[in-house]
Write a structure and sequence with these properties.
Elements (H helix, E strand, L loop, with lengths): L1 H10 L8 E5 L1 H4 L5 H19 L5 E5 L14 H9 L2 E2 L3 H14 L3 E4 L1 E2 L1 H9 L18 H4 L14 H5 L4 H20 L13 H4 L3 H15 L7 H4 L3 H12 L2 H18 L8 H22 L10 H5 L3 H12 L3
Parallel strand pairs: 1-2, 2-4
Antiparallel strand pairs: 3-5
Helix pairs in contact: 9-11, 9-13
């Protein structure tokens, strides 16, 4: 910023054919971890606009990634380049960059963005709900939401567009954790550039998997889109393994009391179907009936107005047959 400001001041009103500033697309996209760099390049863009208001030539070119390594990009390894490609950024060859330079000068605009873009990758980000608003005009796909697509897997599939919390609600504790584990592993794989999450160990620390601050932010954003919750920026540092993260999401999306009653309904379904009870002895059936009677009474006492006359009385329950008890449970707990 100092150098550009000084050059602007020293050239003054001199007649120049061009005044070219090498800016960066980071000033427009706001890349995580590059706030100072983004701000400095935005200054260059603003200086070009300022010169135009004074009738002076200026072209600020907000460059994307160049394929030829430089002091700024030479440190990027294959993982970093793969991450960039998944965001839709494609490295420019030197020939492409020089052609875009000529194009930018010919436009005579204060600011031009010169970067390679992969429209297929942008379309995928749009379907995942992660596309940067700046690129929204480049793709036409209708976002489907990552939460809907992540349903396919070993746990259970679901219709597209059904919120994740609604798909979790009817599941048992084991099924719910299975769905969330699939969701976490697939998103971890997407961030790291793997084809699938099959090889992502649930107990492997995120640091050992290759996560850094930028990939941590990307995973947080993806899971935030999938769950519909605003997740903490320190998500994977607070929950350092995929399994710990699954546990956190499970608590966030399914309160413990919902888990208890979800399991209860599943067990009652199993009991009503007669599975495992056909060979039960009369003594065992008697114990089941007694436990159900006691439980039903406690439910009624907990939810009913003590002055209300509605609901089953103790006398009615005591005189009920086994079939009547099951029918009563069906009606009270809403089991189809």
């Amino acid at each position: 910023t100092d150098a550009a400001g000084d050059l602007h001041t020293l050239t003054g009103q001199d007649e120049r054919s061009a005044f070219v500033l090498y800016s960066s697309a980071a000033g427009l996209l706001g890349n995580p971890g590059q706030a100072n760099y983004a701000a400095a390049n935005t200054f260059l863009d603003a200086l070009a606009h300022h010169r135009h208001t004074q009738g002076l030539p200026a072209t600020s070119i907000a460059w994307g990634l160049w394929g030829e390594a430089s002091n700024m990009t030479g440190h990027l390894d294959e993982t970093a380049l793969s991450r960039l490609s998944r965001t839709g950024v494609v490295a420019l060859s030197s020939q492409e960059g020089l052609a875009l330079f000529d194009e930018a000068l010919g436009l005579r605009r204060p600011l031009s963005v010169a970067m390679g873009m992969n429209l297929a990758a942008l379309g995928e980000r749009a379907r995942s709900g992660l596309l940067e608003p700046l690129f929204s005009g480049l793709v036409r796909q209708r976002p489907e939401g990552l939460a809907a697509r992540a349903a396919s897997g070993p746990a259970r599939s679901a219709p597209s567009g059904v919120p994740l919390v609604e798909r979790l609600a009817p599941l048992s504790s084991e099924e719910r954790r299975g769905l969330l584990a699939h969701l976490v592993r697939e998103n971890v794989a997407a961030v790291l550039g793997h084809a699938t999450g099959d090889n992502i160990g649930l107990e492997q620390p995120f640091k050992m998997l290759g996560f850094d601050s930028l990939s941590a932010v990307e995973l947080r954003n993806r899971l935030g889109t999938a769950t519909g919750h605003r997740l903490s920026p320190t998500l994977i540092f607070d929950h350092p393994t995929p399994n710990a993260l699954v546990g956190h999401l499970n608590e966030l999306l399914a309160p413990p009391e919902a888990d208890v009653f979800g399991r209860l309904l599943s067990e009652l379904d199993l009991l009503q179907s007669g599975s495992g009870a056909t060979e039960a002895s009369p003594a065992a059936v008697g114990k089941i009936v007694t436990r159900l009677q006691d439980f039903l009474l406690s439910l009624e006492e907990g939810r009913s107005d003590p002055h209300a006359s509605e609901g089953p009385s103790a006398e009615r329950i005591s005189a009920a047959t086994d079939d009547e008890i099951f029918d009563l449970i069906d009606n009270e707990l809403g089991i189809a």
